[in-house]
Amino acid sequence: MLFGRFKNRVPTPEEALKGRPEPEYAVPERHTVLGTALQGPYPEGLEIADFGMGCFWGAERVFWTTDGVWTTLVGYQGGSTPNPTYEEVCSGLTGHAEVVRVVFDPSKVSYEALLKRFWEAHDPTQGFRQGNDTGTQYRSAVYTHSHAQAATAEASRTAYQQVLTSSGHGDITTEILPAEDRPFYPAEGYHQQYLDKNPAGYCGIGGTGVKLSDPPEGGSCPTGIAPTDG
Hints:
The protein is of the alpha+beta class. The protein is built from six helices and ten strands. Strand 4 and strand 5 (about 135) form a beta hairpin. The longest helix is centred in the last third of the chain and has 20 residues, at about 145-165. It is an enzyme of class 1 (oxidoreductase). Its EC number is 1.8.4.11.
């Protein structure tokens, strides 16, 4: 079975499904909670961050409830198949991760603060799974949009590894890679803001309970570390 071959490794570009030049579906124009444009145009001065942390339904809600976030949308990134469908991504044959794209105002929320939300809201040590969800599409990932984002993400990973290790957890498996040459393909409309449309729907988000301290006011990573309360 082809799916079984790629449940525990990402297919090479030669092995991946061929995809298509255009998407098979339309994406809604507006965010159902925030009322903002999903795919732009975005106001001047906003920045983009991309995070993979398991099933993107719950991951998106983590960020649309964060002050300073202008819009969020979910999609597929880090694979080889152009314009994949959800079913193709779930087959493991495209190589994509389920990702939430976060468009944020850096004057209101820092990239460091978004990384704190990212690390604490999932278990980044699980490889190609997140909780009961298994497969390469559920891997932990950060796709960066600048050298500054890359440096900040690497520093925060180092800081979080320290506190995870001291708390008895394993090694972080999160991939940190440039978004350049890793296109983000928005997911089908029914996935966008799924938990707003389906409040009792499935949410696979669950962290380790290990906390990073808040980034210093006006400062940058490396982020301080702090044990979980209680």
